[in-house]
Amino acid sequence: MIKVAIVGGTGYTGVELLRLLEGHPQAEVRTITSRKEAGMGVAEMFPSLRGLKRFGNLADCNVVFFATPHGVAMAQARELVAGGVKVIDLAADFRLKDAAEFERWYKMPHACAELLAQSVYGLPEMHREAIRKARIVGNPGCYPTAIQLGFLPLVEAGLVDASHLIADAKSGVSGAGRKAELGLTFSEASDNFKAYNVAGHRHHPEIVQGLKGVTHEPVNVVFTPHLTPMIRGIHATLYARLTKSGVDLQRLYEERFAHEPFVDVMPPASHPDTRSVRASNVCRIAVHRPHDGDIVVVLSVIDNLVKGAAGQAVQNMNLLFGLPETTGLTAPPVLP
Amino acid sequence: MIKVAIVGGTGYTGVELLRLLEGHPQAEVRTITSRKEAGMGVAEMFPSLRGLKRFGNLADCNVVFFATPHGVAMAQARELVAGGVKVIDLAADFRLKDAAEFERWYKMPHACAELLAQSVYGLPEMHREAIRKARIVGNPGCYPTAIQLGFLPLVEAGLVDASHLIADAKSGVSGAGRKAELGLTFSEASDNFKAYNVAGHRHHPEIVQGLKGVTHEPVNVVFTPHLTPMIRGIHATLYARLTKSGVDLQRLYEERFAHEPFVDVMPPASHPDTRSVRASNVCRIAVHRPHDGDIVVVLSVIDNLVKGAAGQAVQNMNLLFGLPETTGLTAPPVLP
Amino acid sequence: MIKVAIVGGTGYTGVELLRLLEGHPQAEVRTITSRKEAGMGVAEMFPSLRGLKRFGNLADCNVVFFATPHGVAMAQARELVAGGVKVIDLAADFRLKDAAEFERWYKMPHACAELLAQSVYGLPEMHREAIRKARIVGNPGCYPTAIQLGFLPLVEAGLVDASHLIADAKSGVSGAGRKAELGLTFSEASDNFKAYNVAGHRHHPEIVQGLKGVTHEPVNVVFTPHLTPMIRGIHATLYARLTKSGVDLQRLYEERFAHEPFVDVMPPASHPDTRSVRASNVCRIAVHRPHDGDIVVVLSVIDNLVKGAAGQAVQNMNLLFGLPETTGLTAPPVLP
Amino acid sequence: MIKVAIVGGTGYTGVELLRLLEGHPQAEVRTITSRKEAGMGVAEMFPSLRGLKRFGNLADCNVVFFATPHGVAMAQARELVAGGVKVIDLAADFRLKDAAEFERWYKMPHACAELLAQSVYGLPEMHREAIRKARIVGNPGCYPTAIQLGFLPLVEAGLVDASHLIADAKSGVSGAGRKAELGLTFSEASDNFKAYNVAGHRHHPEIVQGLKGVTHEPVNVVFTPHLTPMIRGIHATLYARLTKSGVDLQRLYEERFAHEPFVDVMPPASHPDTRSVRASNVCRIAVHRPHDGDIVVVLSVIDNLVKGAAGQAVQNMNLLFGLPETTGLTAPPVLP
Prior knowledge:
homotetramer; alpha/beta; six-stranded parallel sheet; 10 helices; 20% strand
């Protein structure tokens, strides 16, 4: 039984970790900490978790999940790792390999840049073997998960102009986290649709880093995030220009993901909807070539809190501890 | 392992049964039938269930769930029961003890009125022992579940004027089922709120029958259903006038439900929200007495598709087969 | 042309006043002030109002609308009124006649209690003649508007037990104002339904005061507010026990409101929905007597920002200045 | 006073025409017809319009709006035009100049192909002068309005590779019309996001035809429509690759639309949201060039029922009858 600690158990990724681990047969949450709501029981904040009780401390655990704002995990990772505790950070501290890049986007110095070399980017579909041996996992961002999985087969195979990729992505509001912000209120965000951060979003360098890792060509991505009035879900609509002809794209995708337990390549002409993955760890992908032209359109959907955060973190934990990768992650989506 | 058949696997209660039973360690869905969408795989209608495959026939099973419109279960129940198969009907065929009452509200003759005497109303909090021995269970309606559980302690204890009960109930849109109706479209039902069927709703006789069973006084309920723009959830706001004074209502509720695994009496002054039970089998209840007056206000919330339908049906299956009542029903609510 | 000032033009009632007055043929908004967002143009906060430009000061105007938090209007009213400027307060400063009652609910001393006697409660359907002559109008709260209009005919006619009235009311999220609060975020408030302030809500004394004014019997109201996932709209479901029989309720309502331009009594058996009044100043009411019992059920819907706030304020302005009451308020509801 | 008839007054574009014309000082709706709901008053279907009364027939009118399914207008246009009645079709009968193209996409023969030559595509920002003199106006589709206005300055100026345009567009559910369809129900369409018709959408030829009219280069557009859980609104996110450098895009857009009353070019770095145009005839546009790369990103928002349908139709009517173009269309957006 893996002894688990969650730091920051009161944000949306934290409470989602609790929900998923509650059904995990080989893991037990021993400790939940939260600076923000000190002295408040989890159940007081989340009546959905009434009845849960936790005790213990981080050092007693086998793995610590950081479901915290950026900057928290890197302050504690060195000591935990030295003590033999595995670290899975759901924030950005261990996603970017280049500390300078981190500092440019997150506006804070990196507290343990020397650990970046050994930390592993936790996208199992790209780095499965490295994750198995890692001590620190940088769990991917929600947008980068949907977008990289969607582009991966095309870029790996060198079929498209990687210097002109377009990722038009739409996120549910929970992607912004559990915070009181005017623009996130129901009165402002419902019955509304808008783009944001078109000039630059923190997930941009992460996407570029990932795709650069699988090609020798220059990679440029125009990434346009949008806010859509739903709680959960990301829908990435991806555009790339083919540089080779005569490729069976459907087959390419099916073969690339044939052995991936959490990537579902839909039949030709499909339009996956976000609710088809709600509360589950699945990424569903469809690939189109409209009017048989030279632009490929890929549709990629995930639940931002599961495959885009807590579920992928549990998937990584399973890898870290040698469990079957799907352990605790097989509950079907909640629909309707 | 209980062999399960689902008749009508393509409505919302059917697909919810599939979701819940997928995680049930002692039950296996062998058969799914659907007249409406014959020849269409479940996964084609519900991409959330891609990968599920089923075969078999009803008679091979230990229990058949009818997740069908009213009138289907009663046409097949006699034969199934004779063959030793248990029947759990999620529609209304076996809810009302009085066939005439059924016919008045559902506008069809009852096909097996003689089975009504032995069928059991499947609200475990009222009829647990009878359910254990039943062959046919009439699974309660969604509104009646929330409303009866909320009124039960008051009416059982004879503390209120049972002839003037008021149930102001609000339901998410999935309560209307999976059907194409103008009034249920997003453009008509979102950003909107309305009452409906104020003159009379089919769940009314069911509520009255249940409450009459626990008191010797006349029972009258004014029941006002409303449609609210959410997918899942029922919120019942209940009003009753106290006829006795000096009662500790909080304690009354806590004691009545102390051993109920799926009824959570909230602390004093609470306001349970529907999302705190989303996708789970829990009913949360809070009891108030505003301004210390003589009117009690009870707030009772459930997920209409779980405790109000499929979850309660699984709970009943567990009772029918001697399993721990919570088997397969312990997943935490999905929040946010 | 009436010269108008708006204090607090950046909350939802302020921006709604701007929208309505933009189409008013006899009024012109000269001044908009906002402490919160000083130096920021209205259009920066509300792109819907790009192009509006304002100048001037309060004393130059004929009427000042206070679309501010409680406590602001009473600090400036004395001076304005002395200078001959009419005041319409959309907050609570001039709603309650009893300063002590105000102080109990709003937790602040009243700054000009001596003006309460001459200020008029701005519900035209009850106080039309007094409003015409007033210098200060206390514009009603949103819940009290829907609830009083719904109960009025019954209580005026002495047909019901006024000491046991029940008002089960549901509000859209904009009723909470334009503020960043966790519970109002889309992730928390959508796909959810809950009651709040069951123990006591600030609109309670206002409702009781209004109904007491039209009957000699004691008045008690149990008022249960709920939050529903829509932007605009209030749906009040009202319950009262008849003390007289043989009354034609439909006719009672039709006659009471026959000459009211903004109260629409629906045909028998109707269920008005909130969207049927969206963005308009209309209150639609239906009256029911389920199962011919002794409990009357009244359904009353308004747009909380229009008839429940800014629209009613404009209606009051029209009365104050001798204009036809419907001037500038005839635009049809926005549906869908 | 222009005498107006509306054929098909009971769909969403019909009822929106009624709402807008109700506030038009120079037009009067004399006749509303609807085959679908014969014998039913408008107010019975749309309580928001209770009180409206209409009489008369088409031939008495100066202009007939067809707010009908495709195929209705073309059956009646010849006779009406012969009688001197102007025709504005909100469906597709007069949008495409090429009857064969119409027949390919709409699966019906064109009933009056000879009128296509003289009918005018009703996008005033492109064809203002021709509209003034027209007898038949083909009112643009909602997507084509947002997309063409967004691309127009770039394509007219020959700054981009017009053979690789990408239009990623998101529509509220009312865009699908007022019809009972499973995929449009609240339970299926809310808390969800999906693309549809990626392989080909009927608005595609209309977009291509429009852009071809302003350039000599070949035009190809990849157009991906999506359904987003809101009632009204279209958000088009447009991508084009610059073929010339050194252009001030902000200035290009501002100058192109400087005299357009209904196109609002937002300040640099803006992200217009759909609610900022809700219920109004405005199109708001922002232009971006992320990371100073060679891909331009244009954000273009409209209300699909107003600038995307009924509002633009009224704008066209104003042009047809020599009125100031903004007559009856100046009401501010409804926000929140």
